[in-house]
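Re: duplicated header lines in exported structure tokens

Our pipeline writes sequence and tokens for each protein into one text file. With two proteins the header for the second block appears twice in some exports. Here is an export where it did not happen, for reference. First protein block:
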Amino acid sequence: MPRPLILAALLATTSIAQAAEPVLPQAEAYTTPDAWRQPIAPLQIADHTWQIGTAGISALLIKTDAGAILIDGGVPQAADLLLGNMAKLGVAPDDLKLMLSSHAHGDHVGPSAAVKRATGATVVNSAESAWLMAHGGSHDIHFGDAILYPPVQTDRLIHDLEVVALGGMRLTAHFMPGHTPGSTAWTWTDTRDGEPVRIAYVDSLTAPGYQVHDNPRYPRLAEDFQHSFDVVRALPCDLLVTPHPDASGWDYANADQPRKTPMSCAAYADAAAAKLP
């Protein structure tokens, strides 16, 4: 989530294709950029990995012989889009077996409750993300109750560097606290053009409006960010994808050239470190 005043009234029932209201600095309701709700066709990232989210928010689907894995989903209104794009790729609702996340803000896990209800998938989270998702985004350490979404219960808690496996695909969790206490990067090896490709889906490294230093609710926030920069620099990373695609050089709406300015994991971490307050 790149800015504190750009999130929608996430429980609204407006269509995903509707335009956002203008952002007002003192508004009581929050709004999202149009791209966060703009439907696009599934985009193939690698042989088994697809982007099925909106133009401005990533949601990755990994297909295996034993079912599929979904990482993130977008805003709450995106649930029907996700299920529809899964169907286009031949993935029925009960084929979705696992749901993972980068972090538990409403612009990334907003539709998780609806997707879990429709599919019966197992929700996998770090302990910190599990807590925030169970509370529907309330009591957020930085945003309080400003960014709410339908709560969802986690079925499986994971530890740092734990492997989540399905159908021969092995995804490793890398804890990278900072943007949220439960922020997580996921790495796995897929193939493309007959060659292995190490994919890193790396969480946001921004601090939008945060009190980074001397924060009484998160005293070690600055140290956690610095640690996470080092974690990201060391990831196996032939192909970087981020929850906000433009942060890593992606333009999902440009089907002819979706990865216009490729970025390495090290460059992503270095750029974030330079901008940290």
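Second protein block, exported in the same file:
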Amino acid sequence: MQIAMIGLGRMGGNMVTRLVQGGHQVVAYDRSSEAVQTAVDHGATGADSLQDLVSKLQVPRAVWVMVPAGGPTEDTIKELAGLLSAGDTIIDGGNSNWHDSMRRAAELEPKGLRFVDAGTSGGVWGLQVGYCLMAGGSDEAIAHVSPALITLAPEDGFKHCGPAGSGHFVKMVHNGIEYGMMQAYAEGFDIMKSAKVFPNLDLPGIAELWGHGSVVRSWLLELAADALKKDPGLDGLEPYVEDSGEGRWTVLAAMDGDVPAPVITLSLFERFRSRQANSFTDRMLAALRNEFGGHAVKAAPKK
């Protein structure tokens, strides 16, 4: 199918490449002309504005928005709404709040525009292994863009979760769980690193060992092993861990549903604490975010 991609950063750029490799025709736009040229080099058609992008698409159009959540996404969708026609579909693949996704779908519906919220997980590794996609929207909207969703996802890695907003709701909870898992790994490795009776435990080797048959094996554990091999003490990282919003929204959803979620809540608060203290736990968290998503890290001050 033909599809447009707006936003060619770490995720969007790789998604363009995967779509092209899957046989799709992609029109790509980013404020960075260098990013557009990179997409063109990988087989996409470049655009120098949203108007230019829309003009290069055949109706019914499909436009994927992969820009930062909040203002950038809001502004992009509003501008697109004035350029697209009834029957076209807008996909928001960023980490938008599910309330915003429900509102946007309702605002676009009177114009005949379809809306899909696609919770996207896979980080910088998605180009090779695919992206787990949690999609919300009408049956018609999902049917329009499903060829692209199937190409982007690994086998069995795409699900239509329900109406508009449900995709971003499921992705929000996914990220809340991720917070808890990362915190548990970080604390466990800190306990081993601090064990006085066993002062020289091979943390990279243990992380690798647990990946073979252990009940705690996971992709995050593989990334932990990779990070520890590069820097066993994680001394090159500043123990400052950001949160991108989904953990906060998950805690609020738990409160709204009267659901006790102490692990996710405490893992969120640990990220707040990391901005005020220095610990191995937080260096591990920073390393994991960098490994799976290419998120920026702060280098430790030189001694």
